[in-house]
Amino acid sequence: MKELLAVELFKIGKQRKTFYGLAAVLVLVAFIMISAFFQGRGFLDIMLKNIQDSFEFQGNLLNAHLIIYLVLNSLWFHIPLILMIVVSGFLTSEYKDRTVEAILLHPVPRWKFITSKYLATAIFSIVLVLVLMLVTFSAAYVFFGSGDLVIFLDGLSFFEPGEALRRLAGAFLSGIIIALFYAITGLTLAVLFREATITWIVSAFFLIVTTMLLKYDFGWPLLNDYFFPKLIDSWQYFFYYDIPYATIWIKNTVLLGYTIIFALTGIRVFIKRDIKP
What is the pLDDT, as a whole number, of residue 185? Predict the structure, then answer.
C-alpha cells in the first residue's frame, strides 16, 4: 500500500492538472484581493451604513483579516469546484488512456489500487487548503496590513486582531474537512461515471444542489441537523460572538463520516465493476 500511495502522490505531482488547480486557487485569491482593493471601501460603507452616524470608526477596517474572511467564503463553491474537477481527473484520465487496465494486469489488488487513490486525494485536498491558507495570510498581511475584523453575521461583530487571527485560523482548519468531503465525492463520481465531461457536469450539479439545500428547511430535525448539505458551513461558526465548539465538532465529525461512506462506496463499486468501458 505504501508503494502504491507513493506512486499516486508522484503522479499527482507530475500531472499538469494539479498545477492548474493550484494556479486556479492562486488566481482566485488574487482576484478577491484586487476586487477588495478597488471595491472594498464601498463594501464596508454598505455594511456600516446604518451605524456610521452613531459611531466613530478608527483604524484600517479594510485590512488583512477582512480579506482573509472574504477568501474563506470561497469554501462555499469555488474551492470545492476546483477540487472536484481536478481530483476526478486523477481517475478519469486513466480510464481514458486505459492506464487502469494496464495497471490491473499486474498482480495489484483492486482495493489497494483504488484505496491508494483515495488516500492520495485526501492528502492533495489537505495540502491545497493549507497552501490557500498560507498564501492568503501572507499576501493579505503584506498588502492590507493588520486591524480589527468587522463582519455581519447575525448582527455586526468586531474582533480585535489577535482574536480575529485565532478565529480565521480555526475556520481554515475546519474548512479542511469540507475540502476532504468534496474531494472524496469528486473521486467517487469519477468511479461511477468514468468519463471526464460527465463527471464534471455531475460534480457541478452536486455542488450547486448541496449549496442550495444548506438553507432549505426539510421540516424534520434529523435531516436539518445531520444531512450532509447542512454540514458544509462549520467554518462560519467561528465568527459567532460565542463560538459553538460543540456544534462545530458535531458537524465536522458527521461530515467526516459521510466522507468515509462516500469513499467506501467508490471503493466497492470499483472492486465489483468490470473496468472495461
Answer: 95
Backbone dihedral angles phi then psi of residue 236, each to the nearest 5 degrees: -75, -20
Closest among 79, 211, 90 to 133, alpha carbons compared: 79
Angle formed by the axes of helices 78-96 and 196-213, to 10°? 160
Q: What are the distances in angstroms from CA 12 to CA 48, 51, 87, 137? A: 45, 50, 9, 25
Closest to 17 (Cα-Cα) out of 110, 81, 95, 93: 93
> CA distances (Å), 233 to each of 56, 58, 147, 171, 173, in order?
32, 31, 25, 10, 13
Identify whether the C-beta of residue 257 lies closer than 8 Å to the C-beta of residue 184: no
Cell numbers given for 106: 499486474
Query: CA-CA distance, 77 to 212, in Å (whole number)?
Result: 11
* Total Cβ atoms within 10 A of residue 104: 13
Q: At what angle do helices 16-47 and 78-96 cross, to 10 degrees?
A: 170
Q: What is the pLDDT of residues 72-124, one digit of tens each?
A: 888 778 888 989 999 988 888 888 878 777 777 777 788 888 899 999 999 99
DSSP secondary structure code for residue 48 in this structure: T
Distance CA 266, CA 100 (A): 15
Q: Rounded distance, CA 268 to CA 271, Å? A: 5
CA distance 125 to 182: 9
pLDDT value, residue 119: 94
What was the pLDDT predicted at 59?
52
- Percentage of the chain lying above the pLDDT 90 cut: 38
219 confidence band (pLDDT: 50, 70, 90): confident
Question: What does the chain come to in residues?
Answer: 277
Compute the distance between CA of residue 134 and CA of residue 101 in angstroms, rounded to an integer: 39
